[in-house]
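Quick illustration, no need to memorize.
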Amino acid sequence: MKFRAEWPCGQVDIKDGGDKLIKKREAIGDPKVSKIVFSEEPIRKLPMGHWFEIRIDDAQMGFTTIMALGFTAEDPASIEEGALPARANLLPETCLIGYQKAVWWKGDKLDLDNDPFIDILPRRLNRVGALLTPNGSLSIYVDRIKMITIDPGSEGLEKIDLERPIYAVIDLWGGARQLTVQNSLPPTEEEEAAAKAAKSTKGGGVTKKEEKEGEPATEGGGDAAPAEGEEGEAEEEAS
């Protein structure tokens, strides 16, 4: 996979021949600026489904979200000049997981009980993968461990049309600032079991809930900021 550098592309710089993206400094904290990026070409269909994986090279804490990512059957080339929305959840034929514990599925929103990105921290170089299975379910992996699966049939949602070309879509609405494409395959059961064992051996690592005293918090104090990705809400910057 390569990131799409030409229109439509939000306020990000595409580097290294499409392997890396960096959110532009002037876009950080501006809720009116689009930070959406697509894959350059449709995602190749594997036996397990459509898959892509990125590494978070730089993420800033103090935001209410990390990012949102998923897939779209909307051809990016069909988006007219100037018509790219501020947030990817406004794209048609798109399924996303992210923002603040949310699923956006073709315009419908589901709230999640748990944050699939809870283990993502600055400087950890976490890897995040997305898998759209042949039956239309969407799974998110963090460091090769499946964190969540959404089955549209079980949730009363309309499936994405898998007969159409499927593109990756990422919205850097939140703390993620630099991503690098990982040329990988979905983890096997054995690989995932090994990743879980390694995480268990390390005691699960430090999560965002266990940040040390003195780390920047969300702007405005102790209460959680409103979920980003909804109309009228602003992106929270670190203090």
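The longest strand covers residues 49-59.
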